[in-house]
Amino acid sequence: MGVTRASLSRSSSRRGSFRLVNRTDTPIGSVHVYLNPNVRTRSVSLDRAAAAVLVDEEVGYRIYALERALEPGESMQLSFDVAFRPRGFPNSDVQTDVVANGAYFHRNWLPFIGYQPMLELADAWSREHFGLQPRRPAPRPDHAGTRQYRWAWRDADLVQVDAVIGTTADQVALTPGVLRRSWKEIGRRYFHYRTAMPTAFGGTVFSAKYALLEDRWNDVPLSIYYHPSHTDNLQRMVRSMKASLAYFTTEFGPYPDTQLRIVEIPRYGGYGTAHPHTVAFTEDVFFSRVRDGEVDQPFYGTAHEIAHTWWGGWVRGAAGVRGAGFLSESLANYSAMMVTEKTYGLEMARRVYGFQLERYLRGRATQAREVPVLEVEDQPYIAYRKGAIAMYTLREHIGEEHVNTALRRYFAKYRAGRPPYPTSLDLYAELRAVTPDSLQYLLTDWFEKVTLWDVETKRAAVEPTATGEYVVTLEVVAKKLRADSVGNETEVPMADLVEIGVFAPGEGIGPGEPLYLKRHRIRSGEQTIRINVPRVPARAGIDPYRKLIDRKGDDNVVGVEAADRGGHTLQPRARSRHRPHSSSAGSNAATSSTSPGWAPAPRNG
After folding, report:
1. What fold, for 451-574?
2. Is the separation of the CB atoms in 164 and 191 below 8 Å?
3. Which CATH class is domain 324-449?
4. Which residues contact 272 (CB under 8 A, 6 or more apart)?
């Protein structure tokens, strides 16, 4: 991209140029250009002879026939001048990209080059109305010829950006890139940014009356641009920036950029969006309260977005292929869970896990056609929620080092950012390689299939032993099911490793201090388990921390009853059932809606 200049004061103009390269092995005889019809196109031109054979202003589509074809390896320049200047006001869909006290807009206001499948009519009624065939479903990850595109928008890969932004005198303008210089001219402020290395191109511009907080992690400058009065959670974000960089660079590889910053945007929509070395957060993240016992949402959300530097940013799955969300959102959420655990401890990590599980169960109860993690499409409850808890569950069984070894190998193979781009099966192969044969069933249950469990503790009784210990007898029942895409469930044999826990008396909503917590091989049907513990227990049960996908988790743990040596109940205790962590995360626990890894158009995700 060449120099882009923008003017922001309830309006915006963008002038610049793209360098277009023919990376195919055949000559290109025409150039297709799409321009947002809501943006006024003042000029579009090529630096070689061409004729406009189609100009559809209503749709925003143009086709230019080249007098001389662009040969393989050749390049040419496309220059443009576009403007956004709204007049009056509409009855609905009021624009908020550029307002009096700030702006936040992106690639949608710049030309798109080439035919873009993303712009095709999507809903069945519209396609039928115009005589079009139904859209083809997204290809499966094992489909041939699906690995050539990195972005849903197929006109740019990693690029060098050079941009100059002009804004009002009292605002600061930002875009991904290194600030080379800033100056004032004729009552306005100008900022010149240039990328230090090829990067994802989103065309994102921020401008507002920002205050600035600066810090540092090793040799990486940290900065937060925020509304001057929104200071409540700044230190939580800084803490997460440092903890995230420390964990991710150790486990996955060096941070690729020279700086890291967070920029506040209005709460018109979305939550958080990851751009190259820049995270955009809506204002509620800056002033939302974090109560005692709740997940630190600003910390967790920051970790998630920074994780996109590695997952969905530097290494990105093939676009438009089923399973792409697993390679970005699932990995970003898993990474954020690990940073949260390292910083706040295991109990807080369990709360995050419970929150993700609850959101997954809620999603599958209200949405149709559930698919396995490896084939997830536009289903956030799978990509964000189930994929993350699947990764975390695998880590619980095979260990953090084995899971992160698989992630490092996957990252090393695809870090160059060139086609063919990876699919979910490429990461899955690395996970399979580090998982022992005895635990391969976990991969099938969590990633290949839609698996559900139903476990229940029918009764727990305790009696003293001659050695001063206590033997606890649990009667449990277990069932394992597989669901298809329309919700039909079929029971399958179960022989899974599941935690059994016995807990001392305690207060609060958790089960209490564990006297015993180990995995047992649990099979389908009823079974009896006997455990020795050193002290008198109060509660006991199966899957006490609700790590299985079990829709009725409140029957996993029960109060322990006293029994005589004959096994008859004496003076039964209250059958206290603890509240599972999935309902105790708090009203703002770990809420996160992030972009699909630096994709230029969507703000949410």
Report:
1. Immunoglobulin-like (2.60.40)
2. yes
3. mainly alpha
4. 279, 280, 281, 282, 285, 301, 304, 305, 592, 593, 594, 595
Report the DSSP beta bridge partners of residue 20: 76
- Residue partners of 292: CB distance under 8 A and separation at least 6: none
What's 348-407 look like in SS3? HHHHHHHHHHHHHHHHHHHCCCCCCHHHCCCCHHHHHHHHHHHHHHHHHHHCHHHHHHHH
Residue recorded with tokens 């299939």? 449
Q: Label the pairing between strands 220-226 and 260-265.
A: parallel
pLDDT number for residue 552: 93
Q: Is the Cβ–Cβ distance between 510 and 556 less than 8 Å?
A: no
Strands 278-282 and 260-265: parallel
Q: CA-CA distance, 249 to 378, in Å (whole number)?
A: 30
Nearest Cα neighbor of 478 from 418, 532, 550, 422 is: 550
Structure tokens at 378: 């536009």
H/E segment holding residue 214: strand 211-217
**Residue-wise burial string across 442-461, b where 16 or more C-beta atoms lie within 10 A, e elsewhere:** bbebbbebbbbbbbbbebbb
Grouping H, G, I as helix, E, B as strand and the rest as coil, residue 77 is strand
Name the nearest CA neighbour of 594 among 411, 385, 400, 321.
Answer: 385
What angle, 0 to 180 degrees and rounded to 10, lies between the N-to-C axes of helices 234-251 and 297-307? 40
Please choose, from the candidates 117, 112, 156, 155, the residue with its C-alpha nearest in 3D space to the C-alpha of residue 135: 117
CATH 2.60.40 maps onto the chain at: 1-116, 451-574
**Where along the chain do the CATH 1.10.390.10 domains lie?**
324-449
Q: Tokens for 105, please give them.
A: 């807009």
Closest residue by Cα to residue 321 from 423, 448, 411, 413: 423
Q: What tokens does 197 get?
A: 């290395």
Distance CA 97, CA 204 (A): 11
Alpha-carbon distance 199 to 193, whole Å?
A: 13
**Residues whose CB falls within 8 Å of the CB of residue 468, separated by 6 or more in sequence, listed in order:** none
Sheet holding 102-105, edge to edge: 98-99, 102-105, 205-208, 172-174
The CATH number, out of the four listed (3.30.1330, 2.40.30, 2.60.40, 1.10.260), of the domain defined by the range 1-116 = 2.60.40
Q: What is the Cα 108 distance to its own chain's centre?
A: 22
The answer to whether 247 and 342 have CB atoms below 8 angstroms apart is yes
Contact 150, 176 (CB under 8 A): no
Provide block-wise average pLDDT over 10 residues at a time, the chain (605 residues).
47 91 95 93 95 94 97 97 83 81 89 92 91 90 84 85 94 95 95 92 93 98 97 97 98 95 89 93 92 91 97 94 96 98 95 96 92 95 97 98 98 92 97 98 98 98 95 98 93 98 85 95 98 96 97 95 59 43 37 33 35
